[in-house]
Amino acid sequence: MDKPFTVGIVTVSDSSFSNNELDKSGPLIGEMISSSPGYKVVKKTIVPDEPAEITKVVKHWSDDLALEVVLLTGGTGFAERDQTPETVQPLLTRVTPGITQLLMNVSLTKTPMAALSRMTSGFRNRTLIVTLPGSPKACRENLEALLPILSHALDLVRNQRTRVQVTHAALASSHLPPGVTVHQCVHQHHHIPKHLGKTNDLNAPVTKRARQSPYPMISVDEAKQIIYKCTRSITSETMEVAQDLVGRVLDEDVFAKEPVPGYRASMVDGYAVIASDGPGIYPVTQVSVASGQDQTPTLQSGQIARVTTGGLVPEGADAVVMVEDTTLATVTEDGKEEATVQIHAENVCAGSNIRPIGSDCQKGDLVCTKGTIISTLGSELGLLASVGVTHVDVVGKPKVGVFSSGNELRELHAAQPLRIGEIRDSNRMTLMAAITQAGFEAVDFGILSDDVNHIRAAFQLALTKVDVIISTGGVSMGEADWIKPMLEQSLQATIHFGRVMMKPAKPTTFATIPRAHSDPCLAFALPGNPVSATVAFYLFVLPALRRMSGVIQYENTTLPVTIKHDIQLDSRPEYHRVQVQVQADGKLVATSTGSQQSSRMLSMSLANGLLVLPPSRPDKHVVLKGEQVQCMMVGSFQI
Ligand SMILES: Nc1nc2c(c(=O)[nH]1)N[C@H]1C(S)=C(S)[C@@H](COP(=O)(O)OP(=O)(O)OC[C@H]3O[C@@H](n4cnc5c(N)ncnc54)[C@H](O)[C@@H]3O)O[C@H]1N2
Ligand code: MOO
Ligand SMILES: [Mg+2]
């Protein structure tokens, strides 16, 4: 059985707020919902007829708690304090006039007085919000009308099936299509695209294209959060403990397979003794150089054994005396061996200079926890090797497909010289290198022409081969910018955002493309301008790839740097390319790489950091030489 739909109930009423006993509608709705299978009331509250209070609870329940339904009762009438509909309406990202009309129609069949109720309904992202009248009777009638369609409506949202996919059969039964699991669907889309207008129709002529972008401009932080919500780690795989494990993230707790040391080992070069024998001259009856042995020899009282550091301490011996605390007494006839040695050390304690079995690590001890990154320092690899762990489960790594798009693009290595209007495809070169350098597999899907069929076919192929697709070009307002409409109209993708308030890379687009037999594919449709594509890669794609491979420990590290000259601020928050250097006094100083045109790859090639500059304000147009600014490091320092 699917998990129940989560419901929150808000009673909006000044009087019920001051005396909770007066609230009859809230409990009634709670009872009706709770007694309907498939729902769970997870939140209930009473607020006064105050827009700020209503807004706070609706936003919190939908944005933070992600409830699937919020039902409000009260405040829908004509009294001056009745402000529920006008408070809720601006919070909605999509209205559902059909639901509002259904409720009104049902109410009107009961009484014409229903016309005096101002119900409203709609979605705030994935939360359905319905304002019901305040009277218990009207609430009951409305809910009776709503409940028969509610679960289907919520099912569509939860599973993100599109209108095309919703057949009458699907309406009659709430079962999912074959091959599609609830799990897949739930993770498929997290955000309903909030188009401000109509996206371009793939079949429409240029005369019909939108002249304003229908995609709202969101902040970089919002964009990152959206991406992270859609980002899931790749299924784990078992790998041999070896160098190529570096950078991988353990997907299991790992326990020692063997104790370390596995035998009583000497900590020093010297003589294994029986501590109670005390100082004196003793025959050297055994030699134990650190090496494999078939059995443990035994030492009798009155004997000593010569041992090396890490060598096996014979049975019976309980301490090792350092060679420095002994002298040679006699040698064998051939003069090649020690016959007897004098032990000078006094008051030797039992156990001294011996590492007992398992004293470094017991068999079964936890040595590495799930989530550990096998670091380049190699210490985790050494640890695993030391305790006999030969294989571990690690989080898989996403495969990344890369396209460039644009009729003007030519392969660098193409035989013919460029014709007028043509340029070299540099984006694939940059991105493939950056992906590989970051430790991910990059699959080259070549250059796409600005032809919708070509673009669609290439994406369809990539969907079968990779976990993440990065395309560049074709995402802005031009007549050949087909990527967004193609994603939505041909691949039923959800475009989670299509513009970000930043410079460069404003038209950065992020979508998830559903697939029948696996998780949705993440698609980053980056702008064509080479610098825009590169910055967007470091800012959005790389952290997502890392998360998919289980790395959540670090991303987009920023450091405070001192700028070496004035920099003009842009109206958009800007990622200004700089070269960061470490001064002799340890201070980090940043020099701009010059003109920041998003076409100018030179501004990127010299950079190892991106200054995170705020947008200009009337009182601040420039950051001055000597000011400290946060800088996102994308490369290493020249020290
Ligand atoms: N009317 C508007 N025009 C533009 C806007 C806008 O908001 N309104 N946004 C501008 C911004 S900002 C950017 S960034 C670009 C993004 O354009 P697209 O993503 O649609 O990319 P294209 O139009 O295909 O190409 C833009 C530019 O980049 C060159 N390019 C493309 N691919 C490559 C490649 N693989 N290697 C090297 N260079 C490439 C292409 O030739 C163009 O010069 O849109 C602005 N326009
Ligand atoms: O955002 Mo665009 O990337 O300025 O050039
Ligand atoms: Mg364009």
From TrEMBL:
Catalyzed reaction equations: molybdopterin + ATP + H(+) = adenylyl-molybdopterin + diphosphate; adenylyl-molybdopterin + molybdate = Mo-molybdopterin + AMP + H(+)
A GO BP annotation: Mo-molybdopterin cofactor biosynthetic process
Any one GO MF annotation of this record: metal ion binding
Cofactor(s) listed in the protein's UniProt record: Mg(2+)
MoaB/Mog domain ranges (all copies): 8-153, 401-547
PROSITE patterns: MOCF_BIOSYNTHESIS_1
SMART domains for the chain: MoCF_biosynth (SM00852)
GO CC terms, sorted: cytosol
Keyword Membrane: no
NCBIfam families assigned: Glp_gephyrin (NF045515), molyb_syn (TIGR00177)
Function: Catalyzes two steps in the biosynthesis of the molybdenum cofactor. In the first step, molybdopterin is adenylated. Subsequently, molybdate is inserted into adenylated molybdopterin and AMP is released.
Protein name: MoaB/Mog domain-containing protein
